[in-house]
Amino acid sequence: MDLLRGVAVAGMFFFSLVATFSDSLPLLLLHNIPGRFLPGDLVLSLFLFSSGVSLSLMRQRYASSFDSGMWLKLIRRLSWMVLVSLFITPFSVGEPFGMDEMMLNLVLTIPALFIIGLGEFVNLGAIFFIWVLIAVLGKFGQLVDPTISYLGGYPLCFAWLPMVLAGSLTTSRNYLTSIQRSAIWIVTLLILCIFSGPPDKLNLAPSFGALSALIGELCLDIFKRSKLRLVWLEYFGSKPLRMWVLMFALLGPLRLYAETSLHQSQLTFKPTEAVAMALLWMLVSYVISKGIDRARRASASATAR
């Protein structure tokens, strides 16, 4: 789970930074382009998928959805996310608590946790109900104007819930195997492509959700079977909130400089320079985070003595 979430967090880190460093990127390094499906579009949905895995594992540790221990742990996590969002959302979307990736994950957590507690078939039913609803609503006109609301805004945040619920299904051992789930996502993807169009993140196409569920399922299964270990990626996955903060520690000032000095949201470095600087800041952030861990251990050791 940490490896899958680490891939998503590192992807968010990389694609967000390169998009700020350069205004002349090749198409494959871009994301959030209306009417396009690009590799960078998957990082959010994979993060939501891995969040579903995490929530399901947490739910299984407690006897019921109303266990006080679970809710205390959840409240602490959500409180930190609210605090971080207060400072970051003005840079990410231009207003405090505006809809961005972190706020989306935050508002989906509680409804996802309740649905997860109702069992595997209820989860599947909720997933398909939401996808069908979005497909039907899309027949009556464009659901989202990306120039006005990112990710559909709060009114349409439920459209992303199936990606969290799909992740939660991977921890169930009662009914469906990973192969059966993958087959379900493939068939669903083909049907949704016919009735609601090809995968499109910004237009909330249900086929994008089904494709994300399939890719998340396959990645998690491959990681489990191969027992692949990428320590730095797993570390990114174990510290998503901290990495989000470290990303915006650089991204926020850069965007502010670009908007005030260049009158645009991007700097003007070459694509190769943008990639190199993004990778460098990821390395720097890893070192900084490790330093924070070491300082905390030293402080705890000194307190114990």
Residue fraction in strands? under 5%
Give the overall silhouette.
globular
SSE succession:
HHHHHHHHHHH
Computed structural class: mainly alpha
Tally of individual helices:
11
How much is the average pLDDT? 88
Number of strands: 0
**C-alpha Rg (nearest Å):** 20 Å
- Note the main sheet: none
Q: Which regions have little confidence, pLDDT < 50, spanning 5+ residues?
A: none
Distance between the termini: 35 Å
Number of domains: 1
Determine the oligomeric state from the structure.
Answer: single chain
Helix content bin: 55-70%
What do you see in this structure?
- With 305 residues, the chain is mostly helical.
- It has one domain.
- Helices cover 70% and strands 0% of the residues.
- It contains eleven helices and no strands.
- It has helices spanning 2-21, 42-60, 68-92, 101-116, 120-138, 161-169, 178-196, 206-226, 231-238, 240-262, 271-304.
- Helix 1 (2-21) packs antiparallel against helix 2, helix 4 (101-116) packs across helix 6 (161-169) and helix 6 (161-169) runs parallel beside helix 8 (206-226).
- The longest helix is centred in the C-terminal third of the chain and has 34 residues, at 271-304.
- The protein is globular, with a radius of gyration of 20 Å.
Secondary structure elements and their pairing?
Blueprint: H1 2-21, H2 42-60, H3 68-92, H4 101-116, H5 120-138, H6 161-169, H7 178-196, H8 206-226, H9 231-238, H10 240-262, H11 271-304
Helix pairs in contact: 1-2, 1-9, 1-10, 1-11, 2-4, 2-6, 2-8, 3-10, 4-6, 5-6, 6-8, 7-8, 10-11
